[in-house]
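testing teh design pipeline on a random one, pls ignore if ur not involved
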């Protein structure tokens, strides 16, 4: 008897602060790279070569191993025209696909709406971490935000559902004189009920999860373990979101960035090892992105905000390799005289995942038609 194929699942990992792509996949044979970065450069003899021009940061060994196994597509030079260097605006652009104006709809929220237009499953989209990212926010579309899976929910210490609903109603009434009734209170009530419903369902995940895989002791590893636990509980979640912060390395990049890459790549490797042990890895593809790259020259301690970054698409169904073009290091090609140029638009990479993996029309989600890559095996 042939098993019914499971619906494809997308895991998005946000590297907050602007990951230094040049020190992740390194142009180690370039004299311009070494001359431009006397402090933060990775010595050529320390790089783990992938070809005769590019190599991996030695602290990203787990990702390199997955790349060598054909499970990682590296998107080189990802960005958009006239890239914004402000963290808040740049991330907002990546979250809403709106470089020209302030967007109100997150691209992940749009995917969730497309997958579950009536909002029947409050766990279609689940975000792990502090707060709900703008990418997941969309009015009328529930995306559940979880800080700690083991202690998630509102008033969850009250075991009886009817008692919890009564307590929530009492909580709502406490604020009615302040914020009034009508639309606001209806929203609070519905949100509260969604939280209760989602919490009850999510409690199944830790209860049913067993694994021999030992995750590292890092925040991103905890989040990805939570993703695995919810996915393996088969609660109908189609899009997961996780965040890993600390990449704004203007100073002290030499000690900070290697530690971040080690935590990130070890966590990713453990996550996919866990899924494979449970025979569910073929259902999942991961996108790892950051809001921008860093400048070509270091500042004697770190690197400042730049453009032309990199992203990773990871999974068993991925056709590993290098995609798009690594930005030229020739000074005549530098943007603003100091930045890497972008060689592919991030909206085309979103579109690649939305259309080729999730099976959805990407045009209304990314606000247009953009060049795609083809990173999936048949």
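output:
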């Amino acid at each position: 008897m042939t098993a019914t194929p499971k619906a494809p699942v997308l895991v998005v990992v946000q590297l907050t602060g602007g990951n230094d792509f040049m020190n992740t996949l390194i142009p180690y044979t370039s004299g311009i790279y070494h001359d431009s970065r006397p402090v933060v450069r990775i010595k050529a003899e320390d790089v783990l070569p992938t070809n005769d021009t590019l190599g991996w940061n030695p602290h990203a060994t787990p990702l390199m191993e997955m790349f060598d196994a054909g499970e990682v597509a590296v998107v080189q030079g990802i960005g958009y025209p006239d890239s914004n260097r402000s963290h808040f605006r740049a991330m907002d652009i990546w979250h809403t696909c709106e470089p020209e104006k302030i967007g109100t709809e997150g691209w992940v929220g749009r995917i969730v709406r497309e997958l579950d237009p009536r909002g029947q499953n409050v766990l279609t989209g689940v975000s792990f971490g502090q707060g709900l990212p703008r990418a997941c926010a969309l009015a009328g579309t529930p995306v559940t935000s979880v800080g700690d899976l083991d202690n998630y929910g509102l008033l969850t210490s009250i075991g009886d559902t009817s008692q919890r609903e009564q307590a929530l109603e009492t909580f709502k009434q406490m604020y009615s004189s302040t914020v009034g009734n009508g639309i606001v209170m209806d929203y609070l009530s519905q949100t509260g009920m969604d939280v209760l419903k989602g919490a009850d369902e999510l409690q199944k995940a830790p209860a049913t999860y067993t694994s021999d895989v030992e995750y590292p002791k890092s925040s991103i590893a905890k989040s990805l373990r939570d993703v695995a636990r919810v996915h393996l509980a088969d609660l109908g979640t189609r899009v997961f979101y996780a965040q890993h912060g600390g990449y704004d390395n203007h100073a002290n990049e030499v000690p900070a960035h290697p530690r971040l890459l080690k935590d990130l790549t070890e966590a990713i490797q453990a996550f996919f090892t866990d899924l494979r042990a449970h025979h569910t890895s073929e259902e999942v593809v991961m996108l790892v992105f950051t809001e921008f790259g860093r400048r070509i020259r270091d500042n004697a301690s770190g690197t400042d905000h730049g453009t032309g970054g990199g992203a990773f698409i990871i999974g068993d169904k991925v056709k590993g390799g290098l995609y798009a073009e690594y930005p030229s290091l020739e000074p005549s090609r530098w943007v603003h005289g100091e930045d890497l140029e972008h060689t592919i638009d991030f909206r085309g990479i979103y579109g690649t995942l939305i259309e080729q993996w999730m099976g959805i029309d990407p045009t209304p989600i990314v606000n247009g038609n953009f060049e795609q890559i083809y990173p999936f095996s048949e």
